[in-house]
Design goal:
Elements: E1 11-13, E2 19-21, H1 22-28, H2 33-78, E3 87-93, E4 112-116, E5 125-128, E6 134-137, E7 143-150, E8 162-163, E9 168-172, E10 177-180, E11 186-190, E12 195-203, E13 208-214, E14 217-222, E15 227-232, E16 237-242, E17 245-249, E18 254-258, E19 263-268, E20 277-279, E21 285-290, E22 293-298, E23 303-305, E24 307-308, E25 311-324, E26 327-334, E27 340-347, E28 350-357, E29 363-366, E30 371-376, E31 379-384, E32 389-392, E33 403-404, E34 410-415, E35 418-423, H3 424-430, E36 435-438, E37 447-450, E38 453-459, E39 467-478, E40 481-491, E41 497-503
Parallel strand pairs: 3-12
Antiparallel strand pairs: 1-2, 3-6, 4-5, 4-7, 7-11, 8-15, 9-10, 9-12, 13-14, 13-41, 14-15, 16-17, 17-18, 18-19, 20-21, 21-22, 22-23, 24-25, 25-26, 26-27, 27-28, 29-30, 30-31, 31-32, 33-34, 34-35, 35-36, 37-38, 38-39, 39-40
């Protein structure tokens, strides 16, 4: 029978002899080791369960997001319906250059399509792509049309040392034919079903670029497309190409333009008031004249002057030629002595020099570890550094000024009012004189080398129609045979000097 009386609480004495409820004593007792382990295990299991739930949610979300993206792109490609009287296109960034619109690729908006009747000049319509990369033209009659594509979003980077316009190419169908924007006119037949095409767009990819200098500015010129594709915004001091890399001085720094990445990075600093200098093939060493004194600055071999027997080496007319960043030859003198030729090498983090020729030279080329070329009043010679012997090259004559290709394969000089190009490897191989006589060129001014070609600058003041002359490309075919291979038209670009050509 229930007595409706309150339950009697069990009471006990605590350690201090105080009377308390038994439950209170139980609550205040410390946990033993077993209890602690049990609690830790339970907590860990709980944490693992929570993490599993979170991961599952994230996986489902990611999968859903991927599915939605793929579905979105797939549907986007199908969004434009073919229907009577409609021409339509979907333009996309073809990242893998396969002419297929893949799920991971995005649409391209900066493009427009122009439409005209075949053979006519007047454009009927020009429609830019919408936010989905689509161009749609409705209410067209059946028949033949011509269309062209153009990039109307130039996105030129006007800030900084250089500018590069946004230039693109389109990929046409399974042939993967690359065509520049603006494209040529293409014939299209609009039938009863309508017309729809997906076209991939890729970044501009030149085969080569000619590098020009004019009034302290540099232009990058595409000889195939006949247009400027990049230019300097500031004055550059004596820009030069070294192994397809463009180096230049600003007010106090040596910098390099990475043409592929379209970025400028510093190479050396604290270079003041230099207007005449020379660089090693990789741009690691700069040499210059200061009060007639030969001076250098290197990334790996210090900086300063070259001393020989306590005297500072003085340069003659800037006659310096590098073989590597650690080896070069210099025409100069010590104090009041006669001009001589010195070999300068990096040793123990300093450049040191030794005399190799007692000759006042007018031309000087460092050909290899074993040989140099020089010209003086007595003639032109190939000099063996190991044997200290020389072989005369009779056809060149004496006291000639020379230029050399960057790979040291060719030496050029004006002899008898004509350009003579000596094929050095052929001379070594045959043991006889091997050269080309290019009778259409009578000065070294405007002559440079690009591989097995001679580039001759025949620029002129630009006319109203943009005609600025041409660059003549002469191919050296071997055995003294040469041929004019191309006349590169100069369009809307002033050219004072051809620095060279960059191959991609």
């Amino acid at each position: 029978m229930q007595d409706f009386l309150p339950d009697v609480v069990e009471i006990k004495e605590n350690e201090r002899g105080e009377v308390v409820a038994a439950e209170e004593i139980k609550e205040k007792q410390p946990l033993n080791k077993t209890q602690i382990i049990r609690l830790a295990v339970v907590g860990l299991l709980g944490l693992l369960i929570i993490l599993g739930v979170v991961v599952s949610i994230l996986e489902k979300f990611g999968k859903k997001e991927t599915e939605n993206t793929a579905e979105s792109l797939s549907e986007r490609a199908k969004l434009i319906e073919k229907k009577p009287g409609r021409m339509s296109w979907l333009f996309y960034s073809d990242q893998d250059k396969d002419s297929v619109f893949d799920y991971e690729e995005t649409v391209f908006q900066g493009i427009s399509v122009s439409l005209r009747k075949p053979g006519e000049v007047q454009v009927l319509r020009t429609v830019p792509a919408n936010a989905l990369g689509q161009v749609i033209m409705d209410d067209l009659a059946e028949g033949e049309y011509e269309v062209s594509f153009d990039n109307y979003a130039k996105d030129e980077a006007a800030e900084g040392e250089f500018s590069f316009p946004g230039l693109y190419q389109v990929m046409q169908g399974e042939s993967k034919f690359k065509e520049f924007l603006p494209s040529s006119w293409h014939r299209i037949d609009l039938d009863l079903d309508g017309y729809y095409q997906k076209i991939g767009v890729i970044d501009y990819e030149p085969e080569s670029l000619l590098v020009f200098e004019d009034d302290k500015k540099v232009s990058l010129y595409d000889p195939k497309r006949v247009r400027v594709v990049g230019w300097s915004n500031i004055d550059l001091i004596n820009p030069m190409l070294r192994n397809d890399r463009l180096f230049f001085l600003t007010s106090e720094d040596l910098q390099e333009l990475s043409i592929g990445e379209k970025t400028v990075k510093p190479v050396m600093n604290w270079l003041y008031d230099l207007d005449d200098y020379l660089l090693s093939p990789g741009g690691e060493v700069i040499v210059y004249r200061e009060n007639d004194e030969f001076r250098y600055k290197s990334l790996s071999c210090g900086e300063g002057s070259v001393l020989i027997d306590g005297y500072r080496l003085e340069l003659k007319d800037g006659l310096v030629d590098f073989l590597t960043k650690d080896k070069l030859i210099v025409a100069g003198k010590l104090f009041e002595e006669e001009n001589k030729v010195f070999q300068v090498v990096c040793s123990d983090s300093d450049f040191v020099a030794r005399k190799i020729l007692d000759s006042d030279v007018s031309g000087l080329v460092y050909l290899s570890d074993k040989a140099i070329f020089y010209s003086d009043v007595f003639g032109s010679y190939f000099y063996d550094l190991a044997k200290h012997s020389k072989v005369k090259y009779t056809a060149l004559g004496s006291s000639v000024e020379v230029i050399a290709s960057e790979n040291k394969k060719y030496i050029g000089a004006i002899v008898g009012g004509k350009l003579m190009v000596v094929d050095y490897p052929a001379v070594v191989y045959s043991g006889v004189e091997k050269h080309y006589i290019i009778d259409t060129v009578n000065t070294l001014e405007g002559v440079s080398f690009s591989g097995d070609q001679v580039l001759v600058n025949q620029a002129k003041a630009c006319e109203v129609d943009g005609d600025c002359g041409e660059i003549v490309r002469i191919g050296l075919k071997g055995s003294g045979v040469w041929k004019v291979e191309e006349r590169v038209q100069l369009k809307d670009v002033k050219v004072d000097k051809v620095l060279g050509e960059i191959e991609f």
